[in-house]
Amino acid sequence: MANIMNSLYDMRLLDDLARKETFIHRLHPMVKLVITIVYLIAVVSFDRYEIGALLSFLFYPVLVFAFAELPIASILKRVLLIEPFIIGIGILNPFFDHQLIVIGGITISRGWVTFLSLFIKCGLTVTAALLLIATTGMDRLAGALRMLKIPRLFVLQLLLTYRYISVLMEEVARTLRAYSLRAPAQQGIHRSVWGSLAGQLILRTFERAQRVYQAMCLRGFTGEYLTGVNEKIKTLDVAYLVAWILFFAVARIYNIPMLIGLLITGVIK
Amino acid sequence: MSHHKVEVKNLHYTYPDGHKAVNDLSFQIHHGESVGIIGANGAGKSTLLLLLMGVLFPSQGEVCVGDVHVTKKTLPNIRQRMGMVFQDPDDQLFMTTVYDDVAFGPRNYKLDEKEVEQRVLQALEMVGILHLKDRAPFKLSGGEKRSAAIASVLSMHPDILIMDEPTAALDPKSRRRVMRLLKSFEHTKIITSHDLDMVFELCDRTIVINKGEIVVDGLSSEILANAELLDTCGLEMPLGLQNCPICGITVKNEK
Fold first, then answer.
1. pLDDT tens for residues B213-227?
2. Is A12–B138 a contact, with Cβ atoms under 8 angstroms apart?
3. A11 near A133, Cβ under 8 Å?
4. A19, A35, A188, B46 — which has fewest CB within 10 A?
5. Number of domains in chain A
């Protein structure tokens, strides 16, 4: 029970972080959105055997963490939550891809390499997405999506889902608390009530969501979610955008870690 | 000032499952009046409020605000003039900060951001929670949430305030604060509540509803002192009008 309530507070951490006032937070939301999209495409576009070149993309999250003064541990914890899914998807790679390669004197199947690259890609992309939310906030992000001409309905769906997750979780927490208080000796929930419990939750959440929606309509809500911020893109925003995209392009075309390695070994020779 | 009048004529409402919640209600509420709507649980109070706000539409009869009928077409106009505070403030506060929540209404009416800011600050000032403007609503206490919910309605400058149980689940001091706040408004007020002491203090007029029908409509001072009438409707006299359980003397509440 405590877990659910904790994760509820945890979830709102991103909202709290988004209210910070740093150089990164003040950037135009659309700029950050575009950079994140380009970053995601660049990371995903790498071949599954290229791990070395991928490493230069670590640079982006590290810098954002530093400049936006975000707590690294609590964001990485969220990234780890996703990794089990990736392990589930990638764990069979070593069995399907038997070809052997030799790295530093150790012979391993190529499957392990693809698995590792999948793992890294997942880590990088999820981190980038979380950083986007933690530095922009859902409301401003939605504003940016609207500026990119994403249909109103999709943006609204995203926003309301994000808002209602907490509503659902509060209902779940309350129901579970009531259950556990009347079934003190039980571990978890007995399977005989799974059905009715889930059904109850859905109905209650529907009702709750309906009331929230009514409250929105009574205050003139017509489907457009207005956050009041109508920021202009400044020179700094453009410079930030161009700088990162240039970096991503260079990092995509040249294998920077290898070049640095060559440079260092060259110096040693 | 007839344009702030609320008129209900032969109102009927039946829920889709066949439950008749409101049965032939008619009344008029004039500008500046403060009316308490009371009744036992399930008497149809909340349904009536939803009908007034145009969240539900009557199966028969009509609701007029000013001289305008409440229909789908006139809703935006009507809702700008009537503000409703929900029973559970959590239903009403869904943005990330108190400020954004209070600004939600004015922004939906496409006001200039300067005007929005001015209205938000003014509304927060009125309910006395200006210092909470950057806080997240879910971190506030019950009384603060209620104040924020009221501010979120005030920022739309309504002519008519509709409130569902404004003092429910508040501690005595917060309840007193909310009551003082409501008393200071010159809006037309429609309040439903089980807190009959509050109705007695805030509303000059009371409408008693039982099983979806109006039992009596008149002066609060007369209705709320009529123990027999209240008893038949599943209610009781306000505690302030009952005898003191210790000394047997009626004590007057702080006004």
1. 999 999 999 999 988
2. yes
3. no
4. A188
5. 2
